[in-house]
Amino acid sequence: MNLTELMPFSVLIPLIAAPMVALLPGRIAPWLAASASAWLAFLIAIATWIHVSQTGVLRYAFGNWPPPIGIEYRVDAANAFVALLITVMAAIILLWGRVTVDREVPERQGAFYALFLLALAGLMGITLTGDIFNVFVFLEISSLATYALIAHGGDRRALLAAFRYLIMGTVGATFLLIGIGFLYILTGTLNMVDLAERLPAIGESRALQVGLAFIVVGLALKLALFPLHLWLPNAYTYAPSVVSAFIAATATKVALYVMLRFIFTVFAPEYSFSALPLALALTLLAIGAMFAGSWLALLQNNLKRLLAYSSVAQVGYMVLGVSFGTVLGLSASFLHLFNHGLMKAALFVAAGIIFHQTGSVRLESLRGLGRVMPWTLTGLALAGLSLIGIPPTAGFVSKWYLISAAIDAEQTWLVVLILLSSLMALAYIARLVELAWMQPRPSDAPAVSEASVGLLIPLWILVLANFYFGIDTRFSVGGANAAAQALLGVGGLN
To answer: HSE (CB half, 13 Å, CA atoms) of 236?
Structure first.
């Protein structure tokens, strides 16, 4: 079996494993099967990335039906880069998550891990497919699984959070489907490459503009782009810790990738940015996200909710890079997509450990916690440095490239806004450090001990990764540049 035939198994393995995992009894067996599936998908993603980086685009036609008649998986540097992030996050978070799942989801763990695998399969399917209707199908698979995963949270508010996400997610998916319908009616094809070839012949068409608008708005809702972010804070806050960590590291990143695939591959960037005022709209929305997300994070008294609003702000940085419409700007977006996955996974894993040890993620519970849980709280603080963008962390590299893209696009005023929003991130991370290390432990606080080595190792793998990719940027920057060029080509809109 060659790699072309093996590549679809990064989707098929978790998809096929899910119903089998659901039937496994006990706690260990479902976790082992789910973890094995995730690690196998990760190994295939690594092999796919290496192949694509060395030889170019990888294609697989299901049932030997050639596109555009049949469904095609088409992997280039862009989606290979995203697929690698998804699978490594799933593998590490499952490695960490067994103990936390035992506490937060004590019953029917087989069904829980099956849902996790379905969410993973859906995200991978969205990323690898070259068919726009297939994007919608896998989006629904991942979304339905995620709704159910969020509802497994121990707090009753998890059900309301899942319901709110379901309503808003359904609206977003409906918008996307309407946009896809417009494209199919106009062209008679659903294959991305075929669409890219046929759309220029349509010329100026109001229906085409409407289709693009529906797609962008639908994906912006899935992306949680301000002000369409209302589902995200509660979803991240009340979901089980392993779910919060996984979706924070992957879900919004996949939605961003799909939006970029439509804007830059299906529609040419020249059309996307001229048919709609995308550059201006994305710039304004990105700025709104950067400041609104950071400001709301400052007001929170719940650690997971604070991190959720911080994710809204970080999405703003990713979208800001897209708004420039240049290779450098798009590279900055892909770079922050990857680095934010690392930093936010580390932060939510640390939050999950705190909840496991203390039973609370309210900020009051952090008082003096650094003295009794030094390894966990140090990991939280160091991951926070990456979120701020302090060298030599991965977050610094992301913001450096974003600032460089702003200067290259002759929008130097945005540099000031990027720095100001970073100072706001400094404020809420400093608040966490101050509570954990500079305030005494309340006398009536319950006795707390440091987490086990099994919980700490995945946390520190993620923390050290934030520093490694802040020092050695060959993979992250090289991958981001290759992804940008795969979507945009050299020169961008200029």
So the answer is: 31
